[in-house]
Amino acid sequence: MNSKLNIGIIGAGRIGKVHAETIAFRLPEAHPASITDINPEAAAAVAARCGIAHVAASSAQILDDPDIDAVLICSSTDTHAGLIVDAARAGKHIFCEKPIAHSLERIDQALEAVDKAGVKLQIGFNRRFDANFARVRAAVAGGEIGAPQLLHIISRDPAPPPASYVKVSGGMFLDMTIHDFDMARFLIGSEVEEIYTAAGVMVDPKIGAAGDVDTAVITLRFANGVIGTIDNSRKAVYGYDQRAEVLGSASSSATANCYPNQAVVSTAESVRRDLPLNFFMDRYTESFVNELRAFVDAVRLDKPTPVTGIDGRIPVVMALAARKSHDERRPVRLAEISSLAHA
Ligand SMILES: NC(=O)c1ccc[n+]([C@@H]2O[C@H](COP(=O)([O-])OP(=O)(O)OC[C@H]3O[C@@H](n4cnc5c(N)ncnc54)[C@H](O)[C@@H]3O)[C@@H](O)[C@H]2O)c1
To answer: Is the C-beta atom of 164 inside 6 A of ligand 1?
Structure first.
């Protein structure tokens, strides 16, 4: 493909705006042709900011447009699976935000439609495209650490979401830990077979009242023998805490938090530095650009996408297993939830 990839954007909320800006200002091979949102003012505001010439009345109008090559699905999670089916039937290549859906049945319907249409699908697990995590993965994949043995992921938010969001989010495991489940598979390069969750409500009783948890340690047993932990909190008072370490037979590879600056202030009383970058918009800015660059390249050069539909499905199986383990207070094998391939 020599011409620019014409992209339609569905959903102009927080993440839709980030992706629209990337397509408009950072990726010369792509063109933001059209945008839509059920809130037309949101779509119009992003269109004006990013120079998008066309505000579509609906997602159907974008999917009917023969000039659109690919769509970015950035709307609320409950719309993703249906929009994937519609977009695949319309022959559009698809980038879809995580998670595909909360139910495996809906995910399987979406993946079946993608297979049938032969279009490309990439899921928005952006952290794989963060330079720090990518380097830890390269150290594991390239043998620098020898045989991997232990994995630790620390993933804590700076502040909990409102209880109203908690109710529609699917819960912490499907909404927040889902990124860590993807990161665990990505870093180790093997599938998790069994999960044990110890979780509770330590941050906000309203989250508990909504039926969710806000604090967890999740133990992972991988098929290749590696043992992992994910440490989650909805509130770390010092900000967004995003770290990982893989210990291997030859060395360990770790990545620490990112800061707005490297300055250290040393006084007679203490040695201080500023807090880490506060949340995902700041911490993962470049990863959002890199993931869309990879998607645009995959479509234009007819390559496989780096985060497939199955990569979108397996973390949902892991999240359902984590919740079951918490509810039943026992280790849960992923096979109890589903096979890892889609039906
Ligand atoms: N990868 C990441 O780090 C990351 C970060 C934030 C959000 N997300 C995901 O992105 C999705 C959106 O999250 P958000 O934070 O931007 O939410 P948001 O509420 O800010 O935006 C969602 C937008 O979608 C619109 N919308 C809903 N249904 C629609 C439809 N049928 N057609 C068109 N527009 C529709 C809403 O009006 C809203 O403007 C969620 O699935 C979320 O999990 C991913």
So the answer is: no
Strands (E), the chain: 5-10, 30-36, 54-55, 70-73, 93-96, 121-123, 148-156, 192-200, 215-222, 227-233, 241-248, 252-255, 265-266, 271-272, 332-333
One-letter-per-residue 3-state SS of 187-247: HHCCCEEEEEEEEECCCCHHHHHCCCCCEEEEEEEECCCCEEEEEEECCCCCCCEEEEEEE
**Cα-to-centroid distance, 145 and ligand 1 (Å):** 38
201-215 residue pLDDT tens: 999 999 999 999 999
Average pLDDT for residues 38-49, to the nearest whole number?
98
* Ligand 1 pocket check for 38: Cβ under 6 Å: yes
Q: Is 281 in the pocket of ligand 1 (CB under 6 A)?
A: no
Q: Whose CA is nearest to atom 4 of ligand 1?
A: 15
User: Residue 342 above 80 pLDDT?
Assistant: no
For residue 16 and ligand 1, the question of a CB distance below 6 A is answered with yes
Q: Is 13 in the pocket of ligand 1 (CB under 6 A)?
A: yes
Distance 77 CA to ligand 1 centre (A): 7
Which of the 8 DSSP states describes residue 269? S
Read off the pLDDT of each residue in 1-17 and give the average, rounded to a whole number. 92
Give 181's pLDDT tier (boundaries 50, 70, 90): very high
pLDDT tens-digit map of 94-148: 999 999 999 999 999 999 999 999 999 999 999 999 999 999 999 999 999 999 9
pLDDT digits (tens, 9 = 90+) for 255-297: 999 999 999 999 999 999 999 999 999 999 999 999 999 999 9
In the chain, the domains with their CATH numbers are: 5-119 (3.40.50.720), 128-283+312-337 (3.30.360.10)
